[in-house]
């Protein structure tokens, strides 16, 4: 059975011009998580929504998390298990531990868990992301046991990056779907 792809946006919910929204609208087999409040994230509520969504899907799934949602996945994996998770694409992790890189509104997600993830994962980072340094993203990948991919200078890999369907990201995602 081909795994479902679960799109997990970060702070603000990945607007219409975000690659996650393009993927949700244009690619098959995508499910998008909906949080109660995208702009005032509460870790416990976001964790419950993620867990409930995974229970509802109840089949093989690959997580596609962006920014704050990468921290969400790390927190979820530190306290939950689900054998249906076949992998995770973790794009532009927001450094919730760093007030220099991220807003106070997401500090409640700190500290970011650093234990190895129990499923294959790929961390994708940009050289000029204002929400995380490349070195810190590489460190996260190493701690989580993730493959690390540097895609050059693409900002926060969000709407402002103008990636639309982000074909490069789809090719990286394929590495997880082929396992």
Automatic annotation (TrEMBL):
The residue stretches assigned to a coiled coil in this entry are: none
This protein's name: Alpha/beta hydrolase
In terms of superkingdom, the source organism counts as Bacteria
Pfam families assigned to the protein according to its UniProt record, in alphabetical order:
Ser_hydrolase
Protein keywords: Hydrolase
Q: Name one GO molecular function term.
A: hydrolase activity
